[in-house]
Amino acid sequence: MPKVLLSRIAMARSGDKGEGSNAGVIARSEPAYLFLKETLTSEVVRAHVAGFNHGKVRRYDADNMRVLNFLLEDSLGGGGSASLKTDAQGKTHGLALLRMELEVPQTVLDATPPTQGEGPA
Amino acid sequence: MKDKVLIANGQGFWGDSILGPVRLLREGPLDYLTLDYLAEVTMSIMQKLKSRDPSKGYATDFVQLIDRVLPDLVEKGTRVVANAGGVNPRACMEVLEVCRKQGVSGIKVAIVEGDDILTDLPQLIEAGETFANMDTGEPLAGFLDQVTSANVYLGAFPIAEALAQGAQIVITGRGTDPGLVIGPMIHEFGWREGEWDRLAAGTVAGHIVECGAQCTGGNHTDWRAIPDLGMVGYPIIEMTPSGDFVITKHAGTGGRVDRDSVVHQLAYEMGDPAAYLTPDVIADFTSFAIEETGPERVAITGVKGSAATPTYKVSMSYQAGWKSVGQLTVCGPDALAKAQLCADIVWQRLAYDGYEYGEDERMVEFVGANVCHAGIDVAGAADPAEVVLRMGVKGPDRSKVDRFGSELVPLVTSGPPGVTGFAGGRPKATEIIGYWPALVSKDRIQTTVTTEES
């Protein structure tokens, strides 16, 4: 299977949720969504973001929007004004997820045409 | 009854561009303009401003905005709903003076009060409310003297009541962000408590527009594909009586409204999408259909909701210690290695003087060497051309936190070569504002609406 960045088949948006952040992964097509629902587990995401998230990762699905919503429970170095970090609000955590490399079946790639403006190349 | 109402949000937070609301009024039709100024930390800052000067404690930007757009409001009849009142909605009535100075009479301004329960906390605790911290479970009683602000997230119905009293400008304190747009929907369509699906539809619409341009192409993954972000249009809800609605923006404005741009914002600050709690309704963000129905038009239909809970959420802030953060720029060659040495030197000199900071009380970042995505392999991160060394400490002892700041700037002359960018000078200790989320029974909170005319 071809190895691609998650950004090839998904988009993302993130922000703060108390002392953690949420990162919504938005699949670019229905086949991409069904593939990610199977493979992009909270364990996979937890390992990927372990450098800046010290808590658990929880996943909620919204099929109608093709969104897998990940809650990174301890990713801000303390919530609100207690954080000393540059990204105290998790604004960049969505793009962090999109930097994940993963093997994607050719059928999913074929059903998900590349877009001109794809995020992190 | 109108068959549709146009409601736009022109301000995503205090500090958002004034061009959002100005252009929304100038560049197309609009029934309602909402403006969101409040974040959790804002309430505490406003409470402090008010304690120093009883005429302060609200979003002064709002008064300046009204001064600028009043002629448009008069000409178009657009009504404004803003949470600009902060912790002092009464003082925000200053907009009446703006109207009078411009010679505009007959403008009705309403304020919604009742969210600020800071002075009522002891009685409420006496009456049985524990205000247990929703994250930790701790009761508030032991922390009561540290609380610096306490505000209830009110719902949309008091806003609708203010509109029913004829107000063209409605000023609230703390309320839910979606409430700003649901108030006008309740008023226009006569929605009632118990019409859960419609109130949930208003909540979804409100969530989509609450951060302004974040649903019209701002902060979009595929940023290269978004046209004319410089002149980005702010979002408009076309709501119908049934609760089905369209998100759009004025013709000719920059940015983009499509399924992707709207879903980006739907995913923002989301918890469990099946249970989005507000004081008016529990909205199910997994229930609706979303589709593009034309250029720059996205329709959302079939939103489901269920009965609201018997409690309000309360947002409290408290004094939680001190912090200090400063930065210097370190150029190459060997920028990262030199910045690492600089950080070591700072801790070494502070330790020599008896100031040591625990692992969770200190922070070092090498900005430019992959700080935001730490732990993820990013090309070029190991050998950046230059690095911003960003360091900070925090803790309960103000003088200890302050001492840190005086060891950063000396690196320019007593560290490795190529250290610069100390223009901000010596960093100082600033207050950490702790956040204490809790619940309170709805029946203990009284809201009032007061209207005055220019």
Mean pLDDT of chain A, to the nearest integer, reads: 94
**Total number of distinct structural domains of chain A:** 1
Q: Helix fraction of chain A?
A: 10-25%
The overall pLDDT average of chain B reads: 96
Strand content of chain A: 25-35%
Count, helices of chain B: 12
Residue stretches of chain B low in confidence (pLDDT < 50, at least 5 long) are none
Indicate the structural class of chain B. alpha+beta
Q: Helix- and strand-based class of chain A?
A: alpha+beta
The largest sheet of chain B is: 10 strands, mixed
Sheet with most strands: strand arrangement of chain B: 11-12-8-7-1-2-3-6-4-19
Walk me through what this model shows.
- The complex is a heterodimer of chains A (121) and B (454).
- By secondary structure, chain A is of the alpha+beta class.
- Chain A has one domain.
- Chain A has helices at 30-39, 42-48, 93-98, 106-110; strands at 3-5, 10-17, 20-27, 57-62, 67-72, 101-103.
- Chain B folds into 2 domains: 5-115 and 153-309, no CATH class; 317-436, 2-Layer Sandwich (Alpha-Beta Plaits), CATH 3.30.70.
- Chain B is built from 12 helices and 19 strands.
- Chain B has helices spanning 19-26, 40-52, 60-76, 95-101, 121-126, 157-164, 179-189, 196-209, 259-266, 335-352, 398-405, 411-414, and strands at residues 5-9, 32-35, 79-82, 108-113, 147-152, 169-172, 236-239, 245-248, 276-277, 282-284, 289-294, 297-301, 304-306, 311-331, 362-367, 386-395, 419-420, 430-441, 448-453.
- In chain B, helix 7 (179-189) packs across helix 8.
- At the A-B interface, strand 2, strand 3, strand 4, strand 5 and helix 3 of A face helix 9, strand 14, strand 15, strand 16 and strand 18 of B.
